[in-house]
Structure formats: structure tokens, C-alpha cells
Amino acid sequence: MATYYKHPTALVETEDVGEGTRIWALTHVMGGVHIGAHCNIGSHCFIEAGVWIGDRVTVKNGNMIWEGITIEDDAFIGPQVVFTNDRRPRSPRFPGARARYETKSWLVPTRIGRGASIGAGAVILAGCDVGPFALVGAGAVVTHPVPAYAVVFGNPARHQGWVCECGDKLQPHGSKWRCPSCARVYEQIGDELRALS
């Protein structure tokens, strides 16, 4: 007996779905996918074999998540985010490209870090990892890796500030960064941020 909810119109071919997860209408999850516990997978999604989704992840409606994508615990994927996994795609059925697709050498994995949030309609290019608790704005085109706690938006996405684990924008606090909502303090080292409290 399943320990997760599957809408009657969802097609779930994997047996690797965690307890308490909910998979909504007209979503197709292929075999070979891992979905953790207490996730919410919205309507009209397609999740290809080879995807790994952690615990407590929210995937909103209309997402296509391709092989090689890893989404860590507590991440949020807004509606209609576009992921890619091949930097130079061709039809595998085209005779001139067939040899390239006989191995997985074309596959470029991408990791969405723990607690990261990807806004609606963002495009994440192959290999552009998004660090833990980073925030990618709606419609952003991510062409480079995004550091932990960074706020990026635009086309191409550019660093626009820092965000706390709780989701609020960080404010300068002497030589550190501080959250006005939860009072967490962070230290900037070069182009990266790390939590101190």
C-alpha cells in the first residue's frame, strides 16, 4: 500500500516515493526517479528517469525536470521553471548525432541546493548549480553557478544581494550581514556567504 498520495490521473512509474508526498493531476513520473518524503509535486509536471528529489521539496505546476537534475531537501521550484541537461542538444534520432547519444557523455548534471528557491519561469542552464538557500528571481536566465544565499535575477541572471535561510533580504551589519526578521548573522568571504548563527 502506497504511503503517499497520487491523483487518479497521475502516472507514477517509480516505486521510490517517500511517505507523505503528494503527486497531483496529470503528472508523469518515470521509473528510476527518487522523490523523498513530504514533497508536493504539482499538476502537469514531467519528471524524467535519473532525477533525484530530496525531502520536503515543493515543485509547482508545469515543470519538466530532466535526467541529471538533483533537487536537495527543502527546495522550492516555482511554476514552469525550465531545466536543461545538454549544452549542445541535437535530436538523438538524427544520424549525424546518434554516436554522441550512445553514451551519457552529453549529460551535464545540475544541483539545486538545500532550501534554494527558483522563481516562476526561470531558466537554469545545464551545469549551473544553485547553492543552498539561494533565491533565483522569476524569469531569470541562470548562465553561471549561483552561490549559497545569493539573490539573482535578470537575463542573464546577476547577483543582486543576499537572502537569509528564512527568506528575508539580508542587511549590512558592520562587517557582517544580518537578517532583520530572524536575527541570523552571516559572514562574507570573497564571493560567498556563510552562516555564523
User: Would you identify the CATH H-level superfamily?
Assistant: Hexapeptide repeat proteins
Contiguous low-pLDDT stretches (5 residues minimum) are none
Question: What would you say the CATH architecture is?
Answer: 3 Solenoid
**Integer tally of domains:** 1
Oligomer, anyone? single chain
* H-E order: EEEEEEEEEEEEEEEEEEEEEEEE
Percent helix, as a range, is under 10%
> CATH topology, which one?
UDP N-Acetylglucosamine Acyltransferase, domain 1
* Global structural class: mainly beta
Overall number of strands: 24
**Proportion of strand residues:** 25-35%
The number of helical elements comes to 0
Q: How would you describe the overall organization of this protein?
A:
By secondary structure, the protein is mostly beta strands. It has a single domain, classed as UDP N-Acetylglucosamine Acyltransferase, domain 1. It has strands at residues 5-6, 11-12, 22-23, 28-29, 34-35, 40-41, 46-47, 52-53, 58-59, 64-65, 69-71, 76-77, 82-83, 110-112, 117-118, 123-124, 135-136, 141-142, 150-153, 158-162, 171-173, 176-178, 185-189, 192-195. Strands 1-3-6-9-12-15-17-19-20 form a 9-stranded mixed β-sheet, with no helix packed on it.
In summary, what is this structure?
With 197 residues, the chain is an all-beta fold. It has strands at 5-6, 11-12, 22-23, 28-29, 34-35, 40-41, 46-47, 52-53, 58-59, 64-65, 69-71, 76-77, 82-83, 110-112, 117-118, 123-124, 135-136, 141-142, 150-153, 158-162, 171-173, 176-178, 185-189, 192-195.
How would the blueprint of this fold be written?
Layout: E1 5-6, E2 11-12, E3 22-23, E4 28-29, E5 34-35, E6 40-41, E7 46-47, E8 52-53, E9 58-59, E10 64-65, E11 69-71, E12 76-77, E13 82-83, E14 110-112, E15 117-118, E16 123-124, E17 135-136, E18 141-142, E19 150-153, E20 158-162, E21 171-173, E22 176-178, E23 185-189, E24 192-195
Parallel strand pairs: 1-3, 2-4, 3-6, 4-7, 5-8, 6-9, 7-10, 8-11, 9-12, 11-14, 12-15, 13-16, 15-17, 16-18, 17-19
Antiparallel strand pairs: 19-20, 21-22, 22-23, 23-24
